[in-house]
């Protein structure tokens, strides 16, 4: 019995890190102070871009991008921002909404703010502190400590954190780059009552995301009755915040987390509550917008290639991050595609 339990937990562990990237809590401000980033070039709108009001925070003509900002993944975030701007036809119409952990020192927040301003002097952005205590009491210990970071759950609170006038966002993880215009993704049409849009992966074994306790309880397993529930990766999502607020989905996610505290219905951190609430109810997006899993094989260090088909976004979900492998001089072939977006100033860079 013990052996079978260990095997089950191992399989859950393998499956979760194969598919998902999470922000870890083990960060220090010293990491940020030792990292210096180059200034990115300024990117201009093409002539046919809609004009913006002086305060574009609430403009529906803006593309609103939301990301969590964390010292540990700052290098990845900087590359992601650069890739978004570089491939946008209307980069001046993009507004970034960065969520940081309120529990971090003020020094850490100042460093993050200064780093962004220095590298992207023209960037339109706001930083929102996320009160960790909002969610820390709801987090049940998962199979990987990295999954237990409160900032990892901030994506469930975007509707509360951002101004009410922001009606739709593109949520992005920090370990990805775009090679296409984000406005195309942001323009995803929402049908019926759908609140969320993302690439679906219906070939994944959906039952793996929940425990036998969940599936053996008819009142729980009936949650997915009459729903063609498929896995989706929460690292790339288009969210209709207006519908989210009306539907009270943050509270619904919290209710599932409270139940999890009582009876252990999943093992994988912040993903399962999203699946419980939204799987089978989302607008499917073309897979080109989340070529994920590029973090590679987590146990043998094997590199992964792209899925068949076109590519608009590459996502290094999984344990291996391209900047770590590049620094170690052990990159995977696709890491070379991330490298041009790396703004880190190396200590050996020649002064120009």
From TrEMBL:
SUPFAM superfamilies: Nucleotide-diphospho-sugar transferases
Localization per record: Endomembrane system
Membrane topology reported for the UniProt record: Single-pass type II membrane protein
EC code(s) of this entry: 2.4.1.-
GO cellular component: a single term: Golgi apparatus
Pathway involvement of the protein, from the record: Glycan metabolism; pectin biosynthesis
Entry-linked Gene3D superfamilies: Spore Coat Polysaccharide Biosynthesis Protein SpsA, Chain A
Signal peptide limits: 1-25
Enzyme kind, highest EC tier: transferase
One Pfam family per UniProt: Glyco_transf_8
Sorted UniProt keywords: Glycoprotein, Glycosyltransferase, Membrane, Signal, Signal-anchor, Transferase, Transmembrane, Transmembrane helix
PANTHER family recorded: GLYCOSYLTRANSFERASE 8 DOMAIN-CONTAINING PROTEIN, HEXOSYLTRANSFERASE
Family assignment from sequence similarity: Belongs to the glycosyltransferase 8 family.
The protein, known as: Hexosyltransferase
Species in which this protein is naturally found: Vicia faba
The organism's taxonomic lineage, starting at the top: Eukaryota, Viridiplantae, Streptophyta, Embryophyta, Tracheophyta
